[in-house]
Task: inverse folding
């Protein structure tokens, strides 16, 4: 047992075995177990008195867990794929297998268990620390990272301990999070102008008026599919992000969110939030704006790295308002 895993065990994480050949540990969370081999993550659970299991490619699994950890389980549902996922109850989290898959649910072989947030968070962090080897960065685009496969070799703590950057005031204002000008411009954004705006403010307002080049900021992002909260105006959060390859999760909404496509193109697969049946395919081009309703799940694909603004509504009690029907799942009714 490494001293790193000992720290997680002290936080209540259950490690049930260790494979000396592959170097990976197996974790238990309630009635779920998580194990991995050189290619796959395997999740098991019990239903109808029997053990069921599900396999995911190790890279897809690690990218999904990384998002769940970094986003603190996010708004609503984080589906790792069509079987496994989490639902955030803001204080506790449901981990499920098949519950939001119409076929598995109807067959009665699904399983869901609720955990206090700190325990599931510590377990997911321990899995990341144990299962990510040197050179693999679960936040990076596949072209920009090493492999997630093979036996355990080294680790990549720097990559997995990098959490979502939140603004304190507004980027560019004194005391705010750094703009990370030290990061290189991404290979797909070499044409992005790097000028910063000139700020002229009335005497007496120095340090209160700011501005920055958001495109420059995004052109230097070293992560994909990881919105950073760049401005907070009451309950309105602007979360720009750069996207390449596939959003590692299907996000199931518990509120409406808006997408503004700043550059290039993203294709979105939209499916029913509850059973996963396909609903629509949306192709967003630069300048396009769309609302993701509160009753769907969505996953995006971006061939060339693109810039997207995710606009989130952090108003308290929104999930209950949609759940009860007080609010329509659609922001606008065209009928
Ligand atoms: C979303 O679920 O809305 C989402 C998450 C991460 C992104 C973009 C969109 O990078
Ligand atoms: Fe979403």
Result:
């Amino acid at each position: 047992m490494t001293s790193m895993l000992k720290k997680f065990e002290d936080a209540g994480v259950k490690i049930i075995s260790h494979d000396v050949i592959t170097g990976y540990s197996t974790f238990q969370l309630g009635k779920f177990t998580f194990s991995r081999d050189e290619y796959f993550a395997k999740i098991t659970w019990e239903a109808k008195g029997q053990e069921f299991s599900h396999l995911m490619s190790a890279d897809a699994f690690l990218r999904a867990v990384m998002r769940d950890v970094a986003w603190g389980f996010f708004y609503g549902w984080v589906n790792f794929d069509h079987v496994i996922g989490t639902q955030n109850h803001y204080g506790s989290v449901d981990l499920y297998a098949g519950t939001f898959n119409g076929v598995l649910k109807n067959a009665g072989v699904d399983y869901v268990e609720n955990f206090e947030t700190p325990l599931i968070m510590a377990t997911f962090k321990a899995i990341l620390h144990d299962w990510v080897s040197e050179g693999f960065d679960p936040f990076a685009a596949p072209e920009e990272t090493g492999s997630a496969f093979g036996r355990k070799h080294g680790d990549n703590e720097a990559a997995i301990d990098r959490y979502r950057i939140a603004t304190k005031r507004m980027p560019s204002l004194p005391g705010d999070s750094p703009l990370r000008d030290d990061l290189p411009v991404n290979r797909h954004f070499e044409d992005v102008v790097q000028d910063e705006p000139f700020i002229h403010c009335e005497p007496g307002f120095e340090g209160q008026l700011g501005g920055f080049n958001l495109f420059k900021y995004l052109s230097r992002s070293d992560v994909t599919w990881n919105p950073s909260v760049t401005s907070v105006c009451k309950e309105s959060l602007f979360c720009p992000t750069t996207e390449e390859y596939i959003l590692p999760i299907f996000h199931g909404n518990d509120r409406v969110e808006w997408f503004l496509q700043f550059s290039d193109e993203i294709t979105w697969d939209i499916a029913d939030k509850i059973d996963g049946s396909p609903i629509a395919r949306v192709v967003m081009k630069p300048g396009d704006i769309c609302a993701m309703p509160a009753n769907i799940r969505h996953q995006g694909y971006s061939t060339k790295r693109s810039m997207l603004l995710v606009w989130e509504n952090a108003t308290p009690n929104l999930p209950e308002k949609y759940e009860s029907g007080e609010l329509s799942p659609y922001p606008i009714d065209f009928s």
Observations:
- The chain has two domains: 3-160, 187-222+224-324.
